[in-house]
Amino acid sequence: MAHVESAHLVELALSNATPTDADAEALRHIEHCTHCRDELAMLTRLVTAARTAETVDLPTPPPEDVWLRITQEVSRETGTPPPPHHPWHDDEPG
Ligand SMILES: [Zn+2]
């Protein structure tokens, strides 16, 4: 079985949708796939960071479109503006 798509993992990390058959299938795959489990864990941390505006400590930043997808969804569900930047870029000069 193919790995779960990143976009689908983002949906699962946000976990604000009613589970579908596709979700159940994806979760079954994730149970047995370290790669997808690690990615879902990373995305869950990003969702938490977006919801709490806390700095996340990741070895590598996620793709910007993934971060934007998460912040847009969190912004929509909380009615607050999304974080203005990647929270792990706070070591920039200035
Ligand atoms: Zn996988």
UniProtKB/TrEMBL annotation:
Residues 72-94 are annotated as: Disordered. This is Zinc-finger domain-containing protein.
